Amino acid sequence: MKKLFGFIGILVLLLVVGAVLLTTVDFNRMGKNNVYVEVIESTEIQEDKLDTGEVMTSYLYKQTAFNEKGEAIEVEFSAQKELRQGAFLKLYVKQGNKVTSYDEVKWEDVPAEVQKKLKEQE
């Protein structure tokens, strides 16, 4: 009987830990490489109509991003709203250039090598 209660206790503990991990850990950012980009105009706007009749708009961006060493890579990413032109983004990428998520950052948070490359682009 004690073994059964112990087993149930461990199972409940594992379920609670698993639920906490799933709600707090962002797997789109975890273990990804970072590149930086300055937002320019969206290259394409897609509108998809849902079964409910609601229209979902996606803004697609195709541009050059730079890693912390200043090396350029071409990235494509989308947003559910039009991003502010001139904003600096930290992109989370996997498999070279597949963007999984992004955060807006301040100019001061952009690595120095990337700042040089972004200034050259202007």
Provide structural commentary.
- With 122 residues, this protein is an alpha+beta fold.
- The chain is built from 2 helices and 6 strands.
- The chain has helices at residues 2-24, 112-121; strands spanning 33-38, 44-49, 55-66, 72-79, 88-94, 98-105.
- The strands form 2 sheets. Strands 1-5-6 form a 3-stranded antiparallel beta sheet, with no helix packed on it. The chain has a 3-stranded antiparallel beta sheet with strand order 2-3-4.
- Strand 5 and strand 6 (98-105) form a beta hairpin.
- The longest helix is centred in the N-terminal third of the chain and has 23 residues, at 2-24.
- It is flat and about 70 Å long.
- The model has no long low-confidence stretch (mean pLDDT 83).
Produce a short descriptive summary.
This protein has 122 residues and is an alpha+beta fold.
Q: What brief labels describe this structure?
A:
alpha+beta, 3-stranded antiparallel sheet, 2 helices, 6 strands
Shape: flat
Helicity, as a percent range: 25-40%
Cα radius of gyration in angstroms: 21 Å
Number of strands: 6
Number of helices: 2
Following the backbone from N to C, one meets helices and strands in this order, namely HEEEEEEH
Mean pLDDT: 83
Low-pLDDT stretches = none
| Span between termini | 72 Å
Query: Approximately how much beta-strand content do the residues carry?
Result: 35-45%
Sequence of strands across the biggest β-sheet: 1-5-6
Structural class based on helices, strands and sheet pairing: alpha+beta
